[in-house]
Amino acid sequence: MGQKINPLGFRLGTTQSHHSFWFAQPKNFSAGLEEDKKIRDCIKNYVQKNMRISSDSEGIGIARIEIQKRLDLIQVIIHMGFPNLLMEGQTRGIEELQMDVQKKLNSVNHKLNIAITRVEKPYAQPTILAEYLAFQLKNRIAFRKAMKKAIELTEETDTIKGIQVQIAGRIEGKEKARVEWVRDGRVPLQTIRAKIDYCSYKVQTIHGVLGIKIWIFVDEE
């Protein structure tokens, strides 16, 4: 049986929760979704432009962005793995980011508040791990070596019980696209009570676009 459903949406209400918390009338629901997308895109673009890139990894280091909307307030919580990589001071950087997002929204009825939370174990987050793997593939590192190194980074975390990494596309410039994957530990994708973090990421290489998918089995309830 093929896995044709998003692992996060499959477990909403059991082991996964929404990243956006707000209510709206049916006619205003699409506008709220567009507003969330603008906020997330603006934050990612700002962090990417104002980040000090380290020598061994590249990426914005954002694990997830939570948005909570009230009548007159939009609370945004950014869960980052490396918040100290921002070039400016953290307080000044947040103020500039708030002004930038506020201009994109063009909303005077809502006050915007942005907070940054540090993720204790960055490489236990599939999004940050996918960015690391994408950087390795851009630098033409052998894909098997890159996948093995990504798995080794998660072995330092005791809470992870299994991980599966998949790369699809014209790997290493081959004419025919194919799918390569490797698994370490258990990854029960059909078990709803299993808490699985999932990420889908695209990377542009000299041979074309490669797709990266990462499943991380954290715990089972």
UniProtKB/TrEMBL annotation:
GO BP annotations listed: translation
SUPFAM superfamilies membership: Prokaryotic type KH domain (KH-domain type II), Ribosomal protein S3 C-terminal domain
Listed GO CC annotations: chloroplast; cytosolic small ribosomal subunit
Matching InterPro entries: KH_dom-like_a/b, KH_dom_type_2, KH_sf_prok-type, Ribosomal_S3_C_sf, Ribosomal_uS3, Ribosomal_uS3_bac-typ, Ribosomal_uS3_C, Ribosomal_uS3_CS
Keyword list, A-Z: Chloroplast, Plastid, Ribonucleoprotein, Ribosomal protein, RNA-binding, rRNA-binding
Compartment annotation: Plastid, Chloroplast
All residue ranges annotated as the KH type-2 domain in the record: 43-120
Signal peptide per UniProt: none
Pfam families: Ribosomal_S3_C
Entry's Gene Ontology molecular function annotations: rRNA binding; structural constituent of ribosome
Database matches in Gene3D superfamilies: 3.30.300.20, Ribosomal protein S3, C-terminal domain
Top-level taxon: Eukaryota
Family per similarity comment: Belongs to the universal ribosomal protein uS3 family.
Assembly description: Part of the 30S ribosomal subunit.
Descriptive protein name: Small ribosomal subunit protein uS3c
Record lineage: Eukaryota, Viridiplantae, Streptophyta, Embryophyta, Tracheophyta
